[in-house]
Amino acid sequence: MPVEQTNNRVILKHPKGPTVELLLYGSHILSWKSGSPTSPEISERLFVSAKAPLDGSAPVRGGIPIAFPAFAAPPHAHPEHSKLGIHGFARSEVWTFDKVLQDDGSVVSIRLTLSPTPKIREVYTREFQLAFVITLEEFQLTNDLHVTNPASETLEFHALYHTYIRSPSKDVLITPLKGKKYIDKTDKEFQGLKTEMRDAVDVKRWTDSVYEDTPGEYEVKWPGGGVSIRTRNLKDLVMWNPQAEFGPKIVDLEEGGWEKYVCVEPGYVRGYVQLEGGKAWVGTQTLILH
Ligand SMILES: O=P(O)(O)OC[C@H]1O[C@H](O)[C@H](O)[C@@H](O)[C@@H]1O
């Protein structure tokens, strides 16, 4: 079976060997195992902390969390987001497995959905419908977040994929961000925009940078591996790794976990997506293995 469902998980199995495993909680992708064109051995491509609870008691530290409708910590600037926790509610609600969209031998694709629940309505009063489409191919994984606004007034939101790419954080380099403006959240004295001067960005030090108006296509490289990221409708990019400076303060991050990943997070987080009543928006990331 190309798609298996248990109580709380869904597993996609590509006929060539790659798999994706996700929790219904958060529609949270926990695992993407795949070979690449240059190294056919199937291996894990995402990082999940060994200390992450996977029982739905808290958002998962690792994999691909979805931030919606607000990115980052309260206090949120948007009045409709004032009661939301960090990164909004999409990553901490149980989604519904809707259906298999495609299963033709080269592509396995499924859709999950989320609509307002009583719990969401306690903190967020706007109407919305979310659909998350996961598409697994031999060497790539695509995520499409569909946001529909069934109301008549414009819906304003952030959306972001908080992707934990398994990689040696001391060696990883991300391009092309030179010349791009960003907020350095680790710099408590200066919260204005800085300009990226580096040809390739590393995360050797504690990094929490929100780049705006980025190219939408990125290369994440390290000796012996790499991932290309292609995006659609996600104009910003967040880069995050706490390193030893901040990592030990994160209770659900395993000791030394910060050495095993880089978070490269395509999103729309500077300003809000403005979605007119009755319309839909799709934000896409595709991860392509080298
Ligand atoms: O701990 P979390 O809620 O998962 O957030 C983890 C990180 O997410 C983003 O990258 C933010 O820019 C960081 O400031 C935050 O620390």
From TrEMBL:
Pfam families in alphabetical order: Aldose_epim
InterPro entries xref list: Aldose_1/G6P_1-epimerase, G6P_1-epimerase, Gal_mutarotase_sf_dom, GH-type_carb-bd
Keywords assigned: Isomerase
Taxonomic superkingdom: Eukaryota
EC number: 5.1.3.15
Enzymatic class: isomerase
Keyword rRNA-binding included in the entry's annotation: no
Catalytic activity line of the entry: alpha-D-glucose 6-phosphate = beta-D-glucose 6-phosphate
PANTHER family according to UniProt: APOSPORY-ASSOCIATED PROTEIN C-RELATED, GLUCOSE-6-PHOSPHATE 1-EPIMERASE
Family: Belongs to the glucose-6-phosphate 1-epimerase family.
Function text: Catalyzes the interconversion between the alpha and beta anomers from at least three hexose 6-phosphate sugars (Glc6P, Gal6P, and Man6P).
Protein name: Glucose-6-phosphate 1-epimerase
Organism: Marasmius crinis-equi
Organism classification: Eukaryota, Fungi, Dikarya, Basidiomycota, Agaricomycotina
